[in-house]
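Sequence in, structure out.
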Amino acid sequence: MSEFPNAIDHSSRICFSILWFATEAEADAAHKFVRKRGDYYNGGYMHGMACGRDKGYDRRNEAKEVIAYAVTTR
């Protein structure tokens, strides 16, 4: 996570990791870095798919507002 010091949280999985950011601008910057570096899911159902911004992992509050923006990485 040292490459992303502004990430507010992370979760390591078997095939990929998720980083969360406080703003969408920070998530978009991380997405560009991850795509340029060539990160991809390593195994599982999504094996070989490119990592990057993934709104499916965004965290939302009870009002369904996004409170943390997700980026997948290796």
